[in-house]
Amino acid sequence: MSNKEKKEVEKLDHFNAHLLALTSHQLKTPMGIIRGYTTLLREGFYGPLSDQVKEILSKIEFSTEEVVTLVDKIIDLRKIDEDVITYQIERVNFVRIAREAAEEMGHMALSRGLDLSFSGPDHEIVVRGDDQKLYQVIQNLIDNAVKYTRKGSIVVKVEEKGNDVVLSVADSGIGIDAGVIPLLFQEFVRDKNVSKEIHGTGMGLYIARIFIEAQGGKIWVTSDGLGAGSTFYISLPIEK
Q1: Domain interval for residue 9
Q2: Other C-beta atoms within 10 Å of 209: how many?
Q3: pTM as predicted
Q4: Above 70 in pLDDT, residue 108?
Q5: Could you give the 3-state DSSP secondary structure of residue 218?
Q6: Does 100 lie in the same domain as 73?
Q7: 211 and 108 share a domain?
Q8: Which of these three, 55, 81, 107, is where a domain ends?
Q9: What is the CATH number of the domain that holds 114?
Q10: Computed from CA positions of residues 70, 156, 179, 186, in that sequence, does the dihedral angle turn out positive or negative?
Q11: Residue 171: in which H helix or E strand, if any?
């Protein structure tokens, strides 16, 4: 490839990256507004509504949240590919982050008839990490649990194990094929047994692994197979 051709390729890559970033940000703002007003309507801020209308609004709210989440993943993936991800590392209370993420996702679980519970110690467990990125990873794991659980429960738990804090997100959902588990945290990998039934991109767990490993942690999953539910784990060193 000649120097001229290389420059043209670099120019095209730069244009594509800029267009992707611009499109992503332009999508995120209006979808956020739609989500906000939908929530206000569903909660009766503008007057009482029938159960049928509330159910429809919950579906709209869920769909707009999926679009906003997708935009965030696209932006993160671009930053990872370009190696420009930055981390604001500081002392953070991991229990607080996990509890807030579980509370935030509670309404989505409730709208789908699922029971979501959280358990963790009353005292702080401090880790060194990026508050927002840790929250994003935990939220993504809970979101996946809600998405792949048709009925039953989701249990979010924080425990101290030796020198580490371990978060688990256990669900009674559709489970994961054993052959997929070793590949699950790679880019664009999804279980073919469920991909036709449930929408997804295969980006979320890959991004979660990049974020957690960059902060000195580990992420993994266990499942007894299809129909047997699954449990996702995060472990991080406790800051003494």
Answers
A1: 3-81
A2: 19
A3: 0.73
A4: yes
A5: strand
A6: no
A7: yes
A8: 81
A9: 3.30.565.10
A10: positive
A11: strand 164-171
